[in-house]
């Protein structure tokens, strides 16, 4: 009954896309791969550090709460 609105399509080409050589495109691709691999390595190391520090922080929190409870009962 009602026709649905179609998505707009753009056929945009940058003015520099025709000027780029194949070598430049290969260099850009390799640089992008290097950056992405470095980023993945950084993310993995940060995740490992966060996982190991969480139990230590929870243990420290439990210890502080225990000491506060003990001192509260002792000083009454």
Structure description:
The chain is mainly α. The protein has one domain (22-76). It is 71% helix and 0% strand. It is built from 1 helix and no strands. It is elongated. The relative contact order is 0.05.
Quick structural overview:
The chain is mainly α and 76 residues long. Helices cover 71% and strands 0% of the residues.
SSE layout:
Elements: H1 22-75
State which percent range the strand residues make up: under 5%
Helix content: over 70%
Alpha-carbon distance between the termini?
79 Å
Structural class comes to: mainly alpha
Task: Report Rg.
Answer: 29 Å
Key descriptive features of the protein:
76 residues, mainly alpha, 1 helix, 71% helix, elongated
């Amino acid at each position: 009954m009602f026709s649905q609105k179609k998505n707009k399509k753009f056929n945009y080409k940058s003015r520099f896309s025709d000027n780029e050589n194949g070598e430049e495109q290969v260099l850009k691709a390799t640089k992008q791969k290097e950056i992405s691999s470095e980023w993945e390595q950084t993310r993995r190391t940060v995740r490992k550090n966060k996982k190991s520090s969480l139990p230590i922080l929870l243990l420290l929190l439990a210890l502080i709460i225990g000491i506060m409870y003990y001192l509260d009962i002792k000083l009454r």
